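Sequence in, structure out.
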Amino acid sequence: MEDRAPVPLPHPAEGVTEHVGYRLKKASAALRSAMDKALREHDLTVPQYSCLELLDEHPGLSNADLARGTFVTRQSANVVLRGLKDAGLITQAASTDHGRALPIHLTAAGQRRLHAARSAVYAIEERMVKSIPAHRLTALLADLDAMAEAFDT
């Protein structure tokens, strides 16, 4: 077995469970599990719910916009959108007057399903946010944004 020099730690930590990345993944997994469970009652997946939220806030987004906004590949977004179309929750124009992107919109059924699911998801976020002191929320959000931006090159 060859000798290897130890790899320096990115910050003081006594084990992998004290690394920032590990803790972020742990929190993300807990959030995803809670959302999966809550959204199952509304016959939605987390990516489907995310698409509905984005379309409610920004009607007319394209497949590519929704893929970026929900952190999935275009191929995965196509599968998600096909499920939403088949359920009658979204519509997509067959053609457009400009560009190639076909705008997508919520249907009335999509609005109703989103409204019903939103209260369950917001209750999860409220539970998560209440676990930290209110005066630290703004700083936490800024820190999370800064961490994500550290990878923008």
